[in-house]
Every structure is written in C-alpha cells, then in structure tokens.
Amino acid sequence: MLTRRHALLSGLATGAAFALPALAAEENPMPPELRKALERDPNAPVLGNPNGDITLTEFFDYNCPYCRVMVKDVHQLITDDKNLRVVFREWPVFGEGSIFTTRVSLASLKQGKYWQFHSAMMAIKGKADERSAMRTAEKVGLDLTRLKKDMDSDQVYAHMDRSTELADHMGLVGTPTFIAGNEGLFGKQSLTELKEMIARGRKALAKPARR
User: Before 176, cis peptide (omega within 30)?
Assistant: First the structure.
C-alpha cells in the first residue's frame, strides 16, 4: 500500500495545459524546491543527457493507453535533442497490476535494464499485471531471483510514494503528464507539441531572475 507523506509544494492548475504553479510570479513561476523535487530526485530513473540543459519529467502508468502510444515520441525526443534530460516518475494509478509492474520496473534499475523493460512493457498487448510484467522481465534478460528481492526495496516504495506526493500537491489529473520549464501538458500530445513545450521551457529558464 502506498503512503501519502505530504510535502510543502505549491499547487498548479489542472487541465490539458497549465503553468507551475498558477499563482507564482511571472519571472519565476516554479519554486526551486518544486523544481528540485521534480527534476533532481536521485531515486528517479533518468534517460537522455544526465547533464542536459532542460529536464522533461513524465508521470506515467504502464496501463495508461496514451503512455504506451507516446513511448516512441519520448524516445525520439531523446534521440533528436542531445541536451535533453528525461526523468521518469512512475505513478501507478490504474490499480494493483500497475503497482506490481512499477515495482518490477523500478527494480530493473538495479540490473541496468530499465529502458529495456520499460519499452518492452509498453509494447505489450493487454493488461500490465504480475503475469505480463514477469514474462517481460524474463524476456529482457533480468535475473528474476534478484529482481523479486529488489522489488521490495525501500527505494521502490519511496519512488511511488514521492510520485503520489507530487501529483497530489500539484493537482495532476492523470497520465501521461509532461512537465518542462514552467509548463505541463496532460494527455496525449504530438511530438511537435512536446518539442514546442521544451523550447518554451528553455527560453523561460534562460531569463535572468528579477532583483
């Protein structure tokens, strides 16, 4: 069972597109503590350039149909943009099957096969659950004995708890949710829409803070 330890994070408006947070100053709409929590959690998987100049954070669930559809676009972003850093926030909101799959996915980090499991799991037909997750884990070459042990680690549950904290405090309405710079997009997006949000994020972050 996931716990809900509430941190003091600013909220944001819900909807297809939103600013972070809704009532913050124009020149610095995302508080540093919120940005740090979203982008610099050492317990969150990172793909792309770890030293990139902007971070795209994705909240997703393995049973979310739009998350599955958009895997190719996220991979394309990483391929096309050599200065993009991508943080994956696993947010299992579709029930026990999603929670089990998330535990497998996060445990795969210990064996250096996170992306292999992630992309393979997103490509399955049918529900993500214990059976499909373990079958996929075996398919991508994970050591199942070690995996089962790592699935119960504190790091795995801490990541899920943190995702719930952040989502609750930001008022996220579902998956997928993408956040970059000072904006977020909810739901299925085109590759162009994601690239445009990242470009706006770079521009916003490049502005010097007012004194």
Answer: yes
Altogether, the residues listed in the chain come to a count of 211
Question: Are 11 and 21 a contacting pair, CB within 8 Å?
Answer: yes
pLDDT at 100 over 90: yes
Is the CA virtual torsion 197, 75, 93, 50 positive or negative?
negative
13: CB partners within 8 A, 6+ apart: 19, 21, 22, 171
Residue type at 50?
P
Please, are residues 71 and 64 in contact by the beta-carbon 8 Å criterion?
no
Q: Which of 87, 145, 80, 148 is nearest to 118 (CA)?
A: 87
Q: What is the pTM of this model?
A: 0.85
